[in-house]
Structures are given as structure tokens and as C-alpha cells.
Amino acid sequence: MNTAPLPKNARLRPSPLSRPKADPSDVPALQRGILLLEWIAQQPEAASVSEAAESLGVPLPSALRMARTLEEMGYLERNPLTKRYRLTTRMLLVGQPHSGPRSLAECCTEALHTVLQATGETTQLCCLADSDCVLIDQLPSPHAFKYVVDLGSRISPHCCAPGKALLAHLPSSRFETLFPKLKLEKHTSNTLTTLEQLEADFVRIRQQGYSVDQGEHFEGIHCVAAPLLDRHGNAFAALTIAGPASRIPVSLFPALGRTIARAASEAANRFLA
Q1: In the chain, how many domains are there?
Q2: Planar angle of CA 120, 122, 126, nearest 5 degrees
């Protein structure tokens, strides 16, 4: 679920708002700090400052100062043995929706525990970030064999239950903007890879109130998810469970879907209250 590493010596392409107009060393420190965070976020493993400096084209002393500052602020953590950096979960707290002083994760804590107790499977909270479905909170299954991923992990929404629940309840204008950015890669024989297949699935999701992933991203892993909807019926997050198909068979999809949909509705009401 992590993004692929950049080729050696490749430079991270900044967004139009942050694209340097001159030599990278002339870019303001704030912009270079954001570029450093973006670059580290794209690495599948912890990265060294020297690698980041080379890839971004900034002086090593500047990159070291930025990394230390971001570490002090809690956005990066440094392995004392390897001296390599990775993002902390603080970035997730900044990026997730808030309702007044309460974060989305805080409002969904009770719902996550309810679903975990009812299903016994790993329970997750996800939202869309750009064109990815991002994991922002998780309660692991008590089973020895379980499906667990790192917080902040990203996956294309077309091949996972929470992603499809979110896509199915987006305003049409936003979906039209988002769809061209999706990479409809085929991960298994069950992956939906065309707009027609997805639209047919969206109709079922809206009718049922929940979505499913029948081994569409990983063979043998099933997921059931339900969207958190705002007052206009648009999704801003999704609750999901994930686990082996042997414990989440197709025959249980409807019952599990209803359980998760109730919890998602209660969490949405708590967030919007």
C-alpha cells in the first residue's frame, strides 16, 4: 500500500503552487520543508537526509536543518541506529477532517470499538486524500492471523471496500474531477478496472448502504465498509473491516454490512453534532 520509490537521482515534481522558479537553493525554507515531507512520504522505507537532499536538489546542510526542525515539531522521527527518517502519525492528525475541536478519529473511536467487538476483525477508518484512500485509524483483530497495515498507508480507492464506499457517495462534480487521476490497476482477477464496472458497483453500494471487496486488492482478503455521510449525503470517511475470506465469507456480507453501516451512521452523527 506504500507508494513506489522514486528512481535514483529523480527529483520530486512540486505542485504548481510550490514549483521553484530558480535554483532549488533559492526556494524559501517553508517550501523546501514541505517538499522534504512530500519526498519522505513517497518512500516505502525510512530515508536518509542525504538521499532526500540529492533527490530534491537542495544543499545537504539545509536538508539536515529542515529534518531536525521537523523532528522537533513531531512530523518526522529519526531512527537513532540508522539515522534515517520517516513520517509520524502527526501528519494524519493535521490532514483529517475536524468538527470544531474534535478530530474525525476522536469522533469515531467508539464506532471502531463497536465494530471490532461485533466482528472480531481488524477495523479501520479511512478517508480520501487526493486520489488515494488513506488509513487514518485502526484497531487490530485479536486473531493471531490478521490483516493489519501501517497508519497512513494509501491504496487506490477502486480496489478496496472503503475506497469504493467513498467514491460511490461523492458529488458528481468531484468524482468527474477525481476519476481521471485514478490508476485502475488490476491486482487480482476480481479487481474492477473500468468505469462501467465501478458505476454498476456504486449503484449496489448506494442501494445496500455498504460496499465489499471480495479479494479485489489481495487474494484471500475480504473487506466490508460503510461510508460516513454528511447532511447532503456525501461521504467524508468510511469504516471498514478486513480479514481472511475464511472468516469473512460472502454469505456474511449483508449482516456485516448492516452492522458497519449502523456504526458509521452513529459516528457521522457524532462528528457532525
Answers
A1: 2
A2: 135
> 205-264, pLDDT tens digit by residue?
999 999 999 999 999 999 999 999 998 999 999 999 999 999 999 999 999 999 999 999
Alpha-carbon span 105 to 148, nearest angstrom: 17
In a domain, 106, yes or no: yes
Distance CA 80, CA 20 (A): 32
Query: Does 26 lie in the same domain as 138?
Result: no
If you average pLDDT over each of 83-87, 111-115, 130-134, 228-232, which comes out highest?
111-115
Domain around 82: 16-88
| 63 vs 77: CA distance, rounded Å | 15
Task: For residues 225 and 267, give the distance between their C-alpha atoms in angstroms, rounded to a whole number.
Answer: 13
Kind of pairing, strands 122-129 and 235-244? antiparallel
**What are the cell numbers at 65?**
536543518
Pairwise CA distance, residues 63 & 71, whole Å: 12
Domain co-membership, 73 together with 117: no
* 116 or 23, higher pLDDT: 116
Residue 6 burial (CB count, 10 A): 16
Dihedral sign, Cα of residue 260, residue 265, residue 266, residue 272: positive
Are residues 209 and 244 both part of a single domain? yes
